[in-house]
Amino acid sequence: MAYILAPAFGWVIWDKEADGYVRVVRKLYVDVPRRNGKTTLAGGIAIYMTAADGEPGAQVYALATNERQARFTFDPIRKLAERAPALKGHVKAYTNKIVHHASGSYFTVVSSVAEAMHGASVQAAVIDELHVHKSAELVETVETGTGSRRQPMVVTITTADDGRPNTIYARKRRYVEQLAVRAIKDPQTYGIVWGADEADDPFTEATWRKANPGYGVSPSASYLRGAATEARQDPAALASFLRLHLGIRTKQVTKYITLADWDASAGLVDESALTGRACFGGVDLSNVEDVTAVCWLFPAPDGSYDALWRFWLPEDRLKDMAKRTAGAADVWVREGWLTLTPGNVIDNEAITNRIGQDAAKFRVQTLGYDRWGATDVVRVLGDGGLTCVPINQGTASLNHPLKTLLRLTKSRQIRHGGNPVMRWMIDNLATTSDSGGNIKPDKANSGDKVDGVSALLNALKEAMAVQEAAKPPPATAPAQAVGDDRQMWRPTQRLNL
Among 277, 495, 306, 334, which Cα is nearest to 415's? Predict the structure, then answer.
């Protein structure tokens, strides 16, 4: 593990305030497949920082999403402290703490409750399995708790995640990748990532050796050979094999719409240029304390679409949303992608007012909505002049729009301007199907919120329905009025805007 220890502890610089040499590296990031001894190594660093670094009153922590995970780092070192001749007599091991009495230092376990770390003066910390941390709060609390130390060390150890954006793992991994290509400079951060490339053959020994620094010892060749054999036969096992043993960020399940396809379809959407154009609306109203989304979908003569979204969130829910998006929600608010409404419940008046403003700017044909929770908003909009159409949220109704959305995305026929809130929701999207193969969004099993997707599908459902109704009847059919049997809330008066 010379690639880890030598740079982290070997690079020093003269510090005038400390009147001596101190380590350059303060943040160490190690991303390596399973069974390569990273937790054992991190535990060794932790006991060194406790008893041998010369720091009086050092506070050293093993941290994870729960105490059980944190103990994977702590417990082996506790056993060493009890039995190893080099440590015996120098440290005292307790159930949850190892104490070095000579310096007044200790090594202990803390779970994911970040409040337990507030006020700590952290000399060192080991953050285990970063990829399972849902919030950045614990990591940020630990890092900001090192400010009073001469040469602290925060060690982050992890295996690859499933490729989800807007997580603390994705943020840290991206930072290390930017350092590697020298896009940014930060001498205090050192990271190393072991893994195969996606183009590598996952079933060859050369690939296994490339991704695993401990190959042949831990993991053993026979172990990886057995895991590879299983992965050949089972797609689900293949995803796990690629991520856990080859360090490739890959989804455990196949995404219905990949971020690569969605990003490639972004295009440019100039809202000012859409003024006066015909469009179809879709709304997905939240419960009283969550995200509400409206989508405006503008058909183009060539069969493509431009899409705009409006997103709202009660301001008291922003902290929770920021946690779930590794701070991205705060950025969305600052940049105007997400609008906050006062208090802890959604403000329906703010939503209807904005929809009314948009209706004065665009030529809104119809507005599709989910019946659930939409009664008051729909009544106001309908009375104001908009034709509001209820959209059933079952597979029979959403199958065609969802499959059409996939086709439009892959063929680059839906331009969305890279809206970051919608990008997050596309990555969250999971689908479910019925016995006939019809599909719909699966909100229960999606990674997080997909309200923007639902709003888009409601708008697309309306656009497709109107376009279908406008088609001439087949030549063999008797002449008749063409329409649909949808029950609409039709306007009683035009919007006076």
Answer: 306
Under a CB-based contact definition with an 8 Å cutoff, are residues 178 and 184 in contact? Answer: yes
Q: Edge to edge, what strands does the sheet with 59-63 contain?
A: 92-93, 97-100, 105-110, 59-63, 122-128, 153-158, 27-31, 189-193
User: DSSP for 87-133?
Assistant: TBTTBEE-SSEEEETTTTEEEEEE-S-GGGGTT--EEEEEEE-GGG-
> Residue 360: helix, strand or coil by DSSP?
helix
Question: What is the distance between the alpha carbons of residues 106 and 92, in angstroms, rounded to a whole number?
Answer: 9
Evaluate whether 109 touches 74 at the Cβ level (below 8 Å).
yes
**Residues β-bridged to residue 190:** 28
Helix or strand (DSSP H, E) at 50: helix 38-51
pLDDT reading at 494 higher than 50: no
* Pairing verdict, β 431-433 and 338-341: unpaired
Going by C-alpha positions, the residue among 136, 99, 143 that lies closest to residue 118 is 143
Q: How many residues does the chain have?
A: 497
Q: Is 318 exposed, middle or buried (0-12, 13-18, 19+ CB in 10 A)?
A: middle
Gap between the Cα atoms of 457 and 441, Å rounded = 10
Say which residue the tokens 């909009």 belong to: 381
CA 410 – CA 258 distance, rounded (Å): 9
Q: Tokens for 426?
A: 């596309």
Tell me the two tokens of residue 217: 């010892």
- For residue 381, give the 3-state DSSP assignment: helix
**CA dihedral (364, 369, 375, 376) positive or negative:** negative
**How many other CB atoms sit within 10 Å of the CB of residue 155?**
25
Q: For the segment 144-187, what is each residue's pLDDT rounded down to a tens digit?
A: 999 999 999 999 999 999 877 788 999 999 999 999 989 899 99
> Can you give the pTM of this predicted structure?
0.62
User: Contact, 265 vs 279, CB < 8 A?
Assistant: no
Structure confidence by residue, pLDDT tens digits, 411-443: 999 999 999 999 999 998 988 877 677 889 988
Report the pLDDT averaged over residues 236-248: 87
Could you tell me if 168 and 130 are in contact, meaning their C-beta atoms sit under 8 angstroms apart? Answer: yes
